[in-house]
Amino acid sequence: MKTTWADRRKFGKNIENERSLYSVLDMTVKGNGLARALASAALVYAAVPCFAQGSDTTVVPFDLRTMRPIVEAYINGKGPYKFVVDTGASGTMVTAALAKALKLPQIGTVLVSAPNNPNPIRAPQHRIRKLVVGDITFFRQSATAILDEDFARSLGADGILSAADFRGYLVTFDYRKRQMLLTPGKLPEPDGENVLDFTRRELIPGVYLQVAGERVFCHLDSGSPFYIALPGRMLQTLDFEQAPKLIGEAGSITGTFAVYQAKISGDISFGKYLLSNPTVQVMDKMPYGNLGYRFFRDYLITFDFRQSRVKLQYWREAVEEGG
Predict the structure, then answer these.
(1) CB distance 163 to 181 below 8 Å
(2) How many distinct structural domains can be found in the chain?
(3) Distance set, CA 84 to CA 65, 186, 223, 226 (Å)
């Protein structure tokens, strides 16, 4: 069994002064063509686990029926429980109901907010003595409670696990095979084609796309239902083949925003890939773009969180190479 040891930082009974800030986005989208789904993005200044690395690849199957990768996890020897593995989260979260059922000790509180409305609320933070996913074990993992019951219901799981917690491994999402691969190693130098540097905005990894000649930052978010969702300002700056159509509303724990969809007049490019006149979503009030479920479905995506690199490979290319 591979073992990880969490940072042994000392937490007092209350950590409100630790400058901890979570940003959580619950995208429950209803409307033409988009099923009810959740995109979560969590920002936290928190302990980062480090790994005792093995030499083998760990294969963790996941369920995609909610358009989010959900894996089985065991907490303090009990379970299995369902957890969303989210690249748009930088900390572990559990529902308040699960924290209560497992009697997880509270170690403090953190501030929780959403990107579309930064007004924070306070949420308890708990300690998990032992969390097991596949043959990876985390010790002394901190987890923030999800207090909003609607959020918890739309999640379709018992909590969220940040993909960035698997530091030291290459984390590959293969939506076609419904599995996550954890492989010791690192990605090669960026080549501007398949391997790119990623940038963290609000501690969440993302890449820059060229959208009709404009450089646009988009989070890479496995917890999102979208394909290519652009920031709200582009409703005024982009040329569309037809007027964007309101397809639903996305709600966070602190507010809601409208989601539009339309086909753009122009190209989107990233690395060696180019999409001509694609249909995109636009998220009103959101400052950044978002690459979600439909994007992850089309590309084999590998994260190197230690080196802040990502590899994107169109799925047909991966099949041809035996991936």
Answers:
(1) no
(2) 2
(3) 12, 24, 7, 16
